[in-house]
């Protein structure tokens, strides 16, 4: 060990320099290390000596930047970000509440009821069952923007008009009128679903919004659920398709369902608010949560 002015006794340690032979001292001193000692420790690889264009660090950064640019151009970063998001969601997402039940359209349902679109009589029976079981909030997501009536319904209504105009008081005419009324009720699936929604009193329906298309004024039954314009916080929309008036007027509320899939076809997010004109339309999930929590 060596002891000098301003130095502490430190043992000798080997210095694995590039080709250097011998030993180096570790000095706890304010005195500068000599050039000879620097050469014994190892070579100096600095930008001043070899030039920044020849350093290993700069070449590695240049290669990494090229790989990054290729990944961005190929969309690999988006793919990787989606995979990381999916994995993090599976790990950190809490278990669904037991109070929430999702009635989905699976293969067994399609085999039993046939291909979609189903008759709205099916949805009417579903609403009746859920309401009878004590469901606090019912959300229907199928598109209900077009009327769904049997072709024979128009003829049944014409028959009723003719019989009512004739005013036949005979028992046979009365029986025919009763059958016509019963047939009209069975074939008018929109009216049956509207009656079920009205009886339940807690059914929310969906409007579809898009970023393209021609804008149109909101129906009054949609404006009932609208909020004040949130500005840039909401996702802007240009056009919308709403439930038919017979259903929308008896619903507890109408929210937006603006599900936009990512490039891989998976929907990972739905906006809570959509700005349409100067108002904000809440999502179906937000309306359901607010109604269930009595907010």
Write structural notes for this entry.
43% of the residues lie in helices and 11% in strands. It has helices at residues 35-41, 47-50, 56-74, 76-92, 107-113, 120-132, 152-166, 171-187, 189-200, 220-223, 245-248, 284-292, and strands spanning 13-14, 23-24, 138-139, 203-210, 227-228, 235-236, 239-241, 253-256, 273-276, 279-282. Strand 9 and strand 10 form a beta hairpin. It is an alpha/beta fold and 295 residues long. The N and C termini lie far apart (79 Å). It has 12 helices and 10 strands. It is elongated, with a radius of gyration of 37 Å.
Largest sheet: 4 strands, mixed
Shape: elongated
Q: Strand content of the residues, in percent?
A: 5-15%
Oligomer: single chain
The rounded distance between the terminal residues' Cα atoms is 79 Å
Q: Structural class from helices and strands? A: alpha/beta
DSSP, total strands: 10
Number of helices: 12
Mean pLDDT: 79
Give Rg in angstroms: 37 Å
Helix content: 40-55%
Poorly predicted ranges (pLDDT <50, ≥5 residues)?
1-31, 41-47
Write the H/E string, N to C. Answer: EEHHHHHHEHHHEHEEEHEEEH
Which structural traits does this protein have?
12 helices, 4-stranded mixed sheet, 295 residues, 43% helix
Provide the fold topology.
Blueprint: E1 13-14, E2 23-24, H1 35-41, H2 47-50, H3 56-74, H4 76-92, H5 107-113, H6 120-132, E3 138-139, H7 152-166, H8 171-187, H9 189-200, E4 203-210, H10 220-223, E5 227-228, E6 235-236, E7 239-241, H11 245-248, E8 253-256, E9 273-276, E10 279-282, H12 284-292
Parallel strand pairs: 3-4, 4-8, 6-9
Antiparallel strand pairs: 1-2, 4-7, 5-10, 9-10
Helix pairs in contact: 6-9, 7-8
